[in-house]
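Bit of a strange request maybe. I'm writing a small parser for structure token strings and I need a real example to test against, not something I typed by hand. Could someone generate the tokens for this chain?
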Amino acid sequence: MLSSPVQALIEIFNSELANVRFGDMDAKGLAHLASEVQSATDTVANAQASLDAARAMLLERQEAMLQHAERALAYARIYAETNEPLRARLDTVALGSLARSDGAFPPRTKVGVGEAGRRRKRSRKAEVESGAASEPSSSAAE
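Reply from user aminoacidic:
Good idea to test on real output. This should exercise your parser:
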């Protein structure tokens, strides 16, 4: 991309100074350099588009990884309910700290939604236990 002053100078060399040469400075030399600048500008624009696409893909893959890791951690915690050493080790895992290579991770904005992007549900075991505690037992009713 050429600045306005440089473009104006090239126009002057292409018109009023078309037949004038100052050492190695002439309209043809300026036009050649302007072409090289435009080519480099195009290369940068293409590289930037590729970088933007790669960053978008990275974000998608990181989000997918985080969602799978959250599910895996949830399953592992259920599995480890009777294994105190494993449960303690799993409790040290903080998945919210996963980040992009630039140190940031897109914040979650949904209210009332768990980290995996879905509403958290009580486990079947918790529902049965809470239901059993709130219902009167058949022996107490008799």
